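Quick one: Lysine N-acyltransferase MbtK from Fictibacillus enclensis, structure tokens please.
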Amino acid sequence: MVYEFETFDDALKNRISFRRVKFEKDAELLHKWMNEEHVIPFWKLDGPREIYYKHLEKALSHSHQTLYIGCINDKPMSYWEAYWVKGDVVENAYPSAPFDQGIHLLIGEKEDLGKGYSLPLLKAMVRHQFQEPDTEKVIAEPDIRNKKMIHVFEKCGFRAIQPIELPDKTALLMFCTKDEFHRRWSYLDKERAKAHL
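--- reply ---
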């Protein structure tokens, strides 16, 4: 298996990895996750397989974002959209810089909820995004009702900026700067992180 990024998380005592979404391999699994009751309220992509498949094909064609499957010890259990703010719907929500990046995520499997996976996974993905030398800020715009996810973002190093209106939700705009992220997590063994670019 070729992963774009992988690391060993000391807290979880498990390996976290991310690989790019492949339509033929992942469409059925992602459709299943989008129809899980804990995902539906925040992603609103539930429904027939054919409709979701068209959405996924379009998402994969967008050059400003990269879709990932997040794994723990090689088990697929989460979905990620890492995107450049420039070219995204959130671009005009604040004075964005050319290399600002953003992140969307979900835990797909019910059995993986409530196990403390979200924060280690988010830390790993944001660390991967900050490997871009010119990126000084990663943003998030979770649904303002999603208090659990907002709390996870805050623990990772994001701070709330302001509510914003997006086409599909009222979101809370959040920022994580590279300086704050490295200050907060500087004790991590960076040598264990391996990027496969």
